[in-house]
Amino acid sequence: MKVDLKNSIGSILYSHKQTDYVTPHTHEKYEIVYYLKGKGLTTVYGENIYNFKYEDDCILLIPPNVKHDEYSATDTQIICNLLNLNEEVEGTYFFKISQKTEEIFGRIKKKMLYINRLYHKCKYEKDENLLRETEVAVESLSPDVYRLLAENKNYRGGYLADVVNAVKKYIKNNFTQKINYDILASEFGYSYGRFRHIFMEYTGMTLYSYQQSLRLNYAKQLIAVSEKSMNEIASKVGINGSVRFCNWFKEFVGTTPLKYRKMNKMLKWGAVWNLTDLIKKHKTANMIIDTDLGCDCDDAAAIAIANVLHREKLVNILCITHCLGDEDAARCIDYINCYYGNDFPIGKSENCPFDATKYLERYVYKIKDDFDKSKRIGNSVELMKEKLSAAEKGSVKMVFIGQLNNLAALLNDETGRKLVYDKVESIVIMAGNFEQTGEYFDYKTYRYMAEFNVALDINGAKRVVEEKELPLKFIDFNQGIKVFAGGVLKGFDKNPVSRIYKAFGVENRESWDLLTVLYAILGSGGMFAASNEGKVNIDDKGRTTFTEGGGKHTILTLVNPKDATEQINNLLLKIREVR
């Protein structure tokens, strides 16, 4: 049988350097990927989005026409094969080598390397026998793939799986129509009651929910990318009348179709996976993040999102420093980074003016047994100086989501101060209460004179705002309390952020640090309004005020907390699981 190489199965053996990113793409056939060496993260998109954290000897099986990307955390070597499978495999499967599967892995690796040699030989030698040998070698992969699938407890093959797949295909082709599920079930020889249980067992969804999810996704696409009227969209998704459609959409999404369209015209935080235009139009910013991770849990979610946006090349994280002097807390930062496939330099403070131990007991010390004890922890200020020194003029953004002692120490250092003025584009700070009108302000059951990040180091904060010519952007306490997020991570116990929120004792939490990091990376996105430039002042008791004119400081105010909450939760949903 003559094989047309252009339409035949492909094979690629390639190496990626550390931090290389393969943008989202698809294939028309099944793809089996063998990670020969290295570490990184592959994201597979679809009805659900999964992150697969690979290392030496891992295999990923991706169905046809499923979008996926790849980020290398270290230098990696990968071999890929496209192949046909006689039995349709529903879903994406990720395998790590084990004692039980070692023999199968060995056979697959040997065959894939052999196929690669044959395939590339075929490009130069138009020999029919060689082409046939290549095809036979590719076909020999299938039995080993099925054996590997049989070892996976989540794989469901056989007749029932075929029936469920056939029904899903029928619903996909007819989801805009009214479907009689009784008749549909009877065509496969089942009562509706029995088949409903089978479908639920295999998909985790009811037949009705599956159809509604397809309708909803289609409606979202039409609203976001077209200017069609709501009446037209309602008709296309199979709902009679625009009023009924708008009520239906709001019930599932939580906002009206028109508001959803308006949000999608903005730069959306919740859709960072598709911000290819941002990558093309804007130079990726270098960033240094300084945190008091341990004092609260929203730092953890902020750091996690920064990790993912770094992988998406929307930001380049130079280092993450800690403003407390505790090495376990600094290692907790590394714990989050490693989960998302990154290995940023970490620093801890050598000038922390207060004892933060009581705050770290909330969760850092509860999970410290999982931290990598071999990680080298540097000096925060020296690490900042090192990264700034190597950067281009005006190319770095600095973000502070904790006390300002490290920034104050950097500015007190003659070399550090020069580097800040020369290399830093802007400094985004979560600190202060600029709505405070009296001696005190009340929050929940407590009375405060100064906001937390200022109160723990008033002298450090005062030193920072002395620099009136620095482009300091403040997001204050009052913005974060308008946005509660994090509950969507509940139940994902392997995710460090989920573990931290649980250990802290909350599901949802105010999002002070999340808002600050997201603004620093993505800009206002229509979510923030900025004041005119002026000067921030901090008195001896830590109270913050702002006066227009006389400096380059600005105050940022959240415009639409409800939209911001939805965007943040959508983004958290997309980073919650690494498999």
Question: What's the structural blueprint in terms of helices and strands?
Answer:
Blueprint: E1 11-16, E2 21-25, E3 30-37, E4 40-44, E5 50-54, E6 58-62, E7 68-72, E8 76-83, E9 93-96, H1 102-122, H2 128-139, H3 141-150, H4 159-174, H5 181-187, H6 192-203, H7 207-225, H8 230-237, H9 242-253, H10 257-265, H11 276-281, E10 285-291, H12 298-311, E11 315-322, H13 327-339, E12 346-348, H14 357-360, H15 364-367, E13 377-379, H16 380-390, E14 396-401, H17 405-412, H18 414-423, E15 424-430, E16 441-443, E17 446-448, H19 452-455, H20 458-465, E18 472-475, H21 477-480, E19 484-485, H22 496-504, E20 509-510, H23 512-522, E21 528-530, E22 534-538, E23 544-548, E24 554-558, H24 561-574
3D architecture notes:
With 579 residues, this protein is an alpha/beta fold. The protein has a 9-stranded mixed β-sheet, sandwiched between helices. A 5-stranded antiparallel β-sheet has the order 1-8-3-6-9, covered by helices on one side. A 4-stranded antiparallel β-sheet has the order 2-7-4-5, with no helix packed on it. A hairpin with a 5-residue loop joins strand 22 (534-538) and strand 23. It is globular and about 80 Å long.
In short, what is this structure?
By secondary structure, the chain is an alpha/beta fold.
Low-confidence stretches: 1-8, 267-282
Q: Biggest sheet, open or closed, and with what strands and sense? A: 9 strands, mixed
User: Could you tell me the number of beta strands?
Assistant: 24
Compute the separation of the termini in Å: 41 Å
**What is the C-alpha radius of gyration, as a whole number of Å?**
27 Å
Quick check: average pLDDT? 86
Tell me what portion of residues adopts beta-strand conformation: 15-25%
Strand order of the largest sheet: 13-12-11-10-14-15-18-24-21
